Amino acid sequence: MSRTVLKELQCPNCGTALSQYTPGAQTLVCHNCGSYVAIGAGDAEVTGKTRKLPAPAVPVEIGKTITVEGVKYMVLGRVVYLGWDDEDRWQWDEWQVGAEDGRMLWLAYDEKGFSIYKKERFRSQFNARTDRAIELKSGTFPIHERYPARIVGAEGELTWRAQEDERLYVAEGARGGQRYSVQQTEEEIEVYTGVGVSELEVAKAFNDEKWIKRVNARVTRGEHMRMIGGLSILFAIGAIAMAIAVSAIGERVEQTVVPIRESAEFVDVDFNQPGRPAVVNMSLRGGLPTNTFMDVNVSMIAPDETRTESYLFTKSFWHETGFDDEGAWTDTSYRGNGMFVPLMTGTHQLKLEMDQASTFNGDMQAEITIRRNAWAAQWFVVYGVVVGIIGAIIYFVAPSK
Predict the structure, then answer these.
(1) What are phi and psi of 9, to 5 degrees?
(2) Sign of dihedral through CA atoms 114, 119, 121, 127?
C-alpha cells in the first residue's frame, strides 16, 4: 500500500527529510540522528534524542502494510518498553499502525506473543496504581497485574509527545479472550483493549511469505517434537506397567515364618539358574507396640567353600503416633523387600539378624517369601523414569503456533 504523505518536514537537528502520514501525529523520530521531533501547532522542535533500537525479534518494519479485518494499515512507528517488578525485568515492542481513514491500532509483541489493541474510552475515573477493576464500554473488568515501566526508545511516527526514559505505570488484565491495558503517565492516562493473535495470523496479515514459511516450519517441527515426546511418555508408561507386571514373575521356592531373635536365623533356599534374580519379601507379623522400632539385617550366604555372605538390605519396622494441626496420626511400616542374584546353583542360606530395636520380645516373627528366576523390574522403572522425563521435556519445549 502506497500512503500519501500528508506533510514533508525537516529534522531541526540534522536537516533530514521527515514524512508525516497522519494528521494526529505529534512526534516524528528522525531516522538519521534519532531526535524526537515534536510537531503540530507551531514549528517543529527537537525535544530529545533516542538511542538506536535493535531490530525486533519478528520481521515487523515501519512502512510495511498489515490487513486487519479487511482494512489495510501501514506500520507508522515503533516503541520499545521496559517493565519491571521485584523479581524480574522484561521488554516488549509496540507498533502503531494507521489506516487511510484515520483508524489506529497497536500491534504488541511480548513473551506471551502478539496482541492487537485499539484505543478505548473510560466509563469512570481510574487509577492504574490502586484501582482493582476498570469500567469499559463492554463491562467491568478486574486488574490482574500492575507494574512500572519506561520507554527504552522509539522510531517512526507516533501520536503523542514521546520522550526516551519517559516513565509510566501499567495495569493489565484479561477476561473472556479479551485483553486490556492501561498506561498512565504523569500527564495522561489511556486504555487499550485487544485480543491475542498467533504469529502465523500476523505473518499472513502482513502477507509475508518468508515469515509464513518460517512459522509453518517451526509449527511442523513442534508437532513432530510433541509426537516424539508423547510417544516417549507412552513408552515410559508402558515400562512402568511392565515393571509392575514382571515384579510378579518368578517361581516361589520358599514361604516360611521365621522368629526374630537377637541371634541370627537361617532359611535354606535352593537356586537352579545362576544369574537370574531372586526377590525376597519380608513382612512383620503382629506389629509393634506404639512408638517403637526394630531394624533387621537380611543377607544371603552362598554354598561355596568360603560361604560368601552378600548383604541384601536392612528393613526398619516402626509404629509411630503423634498429633499435628489435623489431629492424631499413626504411621507404620511392616513390609520390606530386596533382590539377590545368585552366581551359582545350590542351596543358599538366607540370614536374618537383629540390628537394633527400641523394644524386643521373643514372640516377634517375620513371614519370608522368596521367588527365584524373576525379572529385574527396577531396570524397567529406571528406563520408564528416564524416558518419561526426556519425553516430557521434548513435549513441553516444542514450539507451538
Answers:
(1) -130, 170
(2) positive
The three-state secondary structure class of 257 is: strand
- Amino acid letter for position 256: T
Residue 374 CB neighbours (<10 A): 21
Number of CB atoms found within 10 A of residue 317's CB: 23
Strands 71-84 and 145-158 turn out to be antiparallel
The overall pTM is greater than 0.85? no
Amino acid at 32: N
CA 150 to CA 92: how far, in whole Å? 11
Q: At which residue does the C-alpha cell 519425553 appear?
A: 391
- Over residues 65-71, mean pLDDT: 95
In this structure, what are the phi and psi dihedrals at residue 339, rounded to the nearest 5 degrees? -125, 145
User: Is residue 206 helix, strand or coil?
Assistant: coil
Say what the pLDDT of residue 66 is: 96
The residue count of the chain comes to 401
Res 260: pLDDT = 86
* Burial status of residue 274 (CB atoms within 10 A of its CB: 0-12, 13-18, 19 or more): exposed
10 Å CB burial of residue 225 (0-12, 13-18, 19+) is middle
pLDDT of residue 204: 96
pLDDT at residue 2, as a whole number: 59
pLDDT at residue 401, as a whole number: 56
DSSP annotation string for 303-356: SSTT--EEEEEEEEEEEEEEEETTEEEEEEE-EEEEEE--SS-EEEEEEEEEEE
Amino acid symbol at 222: G
